[in-house]
Known about the structure:
The structure is a single chain. The protein is an alpha+beta fold. The chain contains 17 helices and eight strands. The radius of gyration is 21 Å and the shape is globular. InterPro entries: Ser_deHydtase-like_asu (IPR005130), UPF0597 (IPR021144).
Amino acid sequence: MEAKNYQHYIQILKEELVPAMGCTEPIALAYCASKCRDVLNDEIIKAHVQVSGNIIKNVKSVVVPNTGGLKGIASSIAAGIVAGKTEKVLEVIAEVSEQQKQKMHEWLQHIPIDISPLESECALDICVELIGKEHQAKVRIAGFHTNIVFIERDHDVVFEMGVVASADQSLTDRSLLNIHDIYEFANNVELDQVKDLLQRQIDYNFAIATEGLNHHWGACVGQTILKTYGDDVKFKAKAYAAAGSDARMSGCEMPVIINSGSGNQGMTASLPVIVYAREFKKTEEELYRALIVSNLCTIHQKTGIGRLSAYCGAVSAGIGAGCGIAYLLGGDYEAICHTMVNGLAIVSGIICDGAKPSCAGKIAASVDAGILGYYMYKNGCEFKDGEGLVLKGVENTIRNIGELSRDGMKETDKEIIKLMCR
């Protein structure tokens, strides 16, 4: 790899593999509200919140952690205002007292909060306006979960940047990603440059998966897989990824390391690879390098799709995990390519209908497809050029899926949101 691209790949991992506590859309709302409260610096008497459709979709049914079981946009805003520590970003409500939880309920009862849809070119768009006794403030986040694009106090603009362009300007260029260079990077990267990121992903995500398997969370998808199918490594890989989601979607207060802005994607891209590494007694170095493959393959797919869409992000992460497993078990560039194409051919039709307990089931199905895609390759089987969305060349197939989800499923996304809000 060129030295420039090598450094970019390291920076991409640093930007994406960050900690978050709670589903990232409610947390983005809490972060925006917390920032707006800081800017206002006044007693709040009213709040106006505008959100894009995908925020509505992904906040509606998921429990906001550290709120005593609250759900929804207003609850996320209340959590950020009452207990948010803005400097902790996606862990903005990680430290909440019982007194603050009670205060959230009281705040929701006494402070009027207007919520309305926001027409936007960005699937992820949040605007929080707070009215105080003497001042008012407005903060907007767009493009990705922590990307503040506008700050205003008393109608004076404090900060502003273009909504659409800001995401591209704020992050390292993802168009540099491709499967060949991901493979070469995983082989040659100096692990000291990324070891801490990857070890934190292992520690955080395995801990919440264990919590999901040991206690009753959500629909207990992970537990059901193990009880029904046994502990073969292929089932354990699905179960651990699903169990992490079981816990997280139902309000577990343990942090995870995310991928492409999503905790579910971060767990799905990592946990199956971790389970396989432990089963086959792989070295620490082998696991790290396999996680690099799984994480970057996931990010590469998501680059063409976008952070939020009608296309289930678990698919990208499940296929990424399959690629990581292929690498872990000795697979070369060709093995990763075939795993990617085979897996995408199997599950690319899964829709995203918001964050909620059933995400765990979609994760299990996506991990299964990633693993099956690898074992198909091992047995000399493949889906071929011209079959559905599969094209010759892995990058062409990835591009097809990106166009399907980013452009072709826009109307599907609108219909999903309409049906969910009936």
